[in-house]
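Our consortium's second objective concerns turning raw sequence data into structural hypotheses that experimental partners can test. To show how far this objective has progressed, the report includes one record in full. It was chosen at random from the queue rather than selected for favorable results. The single chain below, 399 residues long, was entered without modification.
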Amino acid sequence: MNKASHATSRSSQLVQSKPMTIAGVMSGTSADGIDVAIVRIGSTGRIKLLGHRAFPYPRAVRNAILRAMENAALPVAELSLLNWRLGELYADAVEATANTLNLKPQLVGLHGQTIYHQAVAAPFLGSSTRATWQTGEASVVAERLRVPVVSDLRPADMAAGGQAAPLVPMLDYTLFRHPTRNRILLNLGGIANLTAMPAAASLEDLLAFDTGPANMVIDTLMQRLFRKKLDAYGRTAARGQILQRVLDELLRNPYFSAPPPKSCGREQFGSAYVDRLLELCGDASSLDILATTTALTASTIAAAYVRFCQPHLNQSTATDLIVSGGGARNIHLVGLLRAALEPLRVKVIDIGERGIPAEAKEAVAFALLAWLTWHQRPGNVPAATGASRPVILGKVTYA
């Protein structure tokens, strides 16, 4: 099969099936809560968002997740109990969202909470090993809602040689591919990740990767320095001055210049990273530290565009950068992105202008991936993850 016919077969995989109502459930590396999106995927492949809700984690639950994510030495019993407690919270969130919309989903796509992700192999027990772990018991969700649940969506891609991230490019391709404009889909979650698509791209033309930290480091500093959960609209960072010496040193991190495919998480940019950042800042003001950290996110995204995306795209074609995730609400951060990218003919757009709330996109993506798995169709994009082949993602828990 040649490239053109292969692209046609993959892009037509959303066709020839009965419409389904699906709940996508996402909880990201920020570990701040649960996003639920309920969508309708029609027989022609059209994805319609029916509703979206966000549910913050209870403080004790979030603290337990953060301990697990930061490689704390936790008893197996605590990890097992956390798995089941999260299952209850996921079921609560889907049930509440469905009740608000007065409908019942036919399928749930459950990302789970990532507590460990090692995409690069390292020695372990006599072998070179990689691993990814998303927790949250799918059986609890299936039993409560009495519908099948597709969960644990990342390991199949990793087993096929991929990084198991990012998995959102399938949605990016389905919803945002444009015949005459380059598109970059940027998600500002705990980690910033992007999908770059040339105009009229096939799936094989996609480039996707994690650019580095976004809300995760900003939120941690807000909690440590200001006793607040987040920097609402970026107002706090906007009051500070960038410490250029510190920013230059942070940008030397080899992750930022490493070529895709690549992915990262708290393993690289967690509490130990924040400790080192604060050491570099010395006795600088809290405002300047936060301004510098926010500039780090904008600078790494802009550098990733110039280094990796720009050569991949059609240089004679205009480019849209469509921003989603909680960080899309950080007006100061988005302003820094505009200042860096718009002189390069990149138009920065909020995803809300395209009909999807900024916080809902990843949940919508996992609803789509669940739909593909249910119909025994691949959901990964090897060009994005580095997998050796397209694979069916996840495990199905029947009601």
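The partners drew two points from this record. The chain has a mean pLDDT of 93. The chain has two domains: 15-164+362-397, 170-354. Both points have been shared with the crystallography group to help prioritize constructs.
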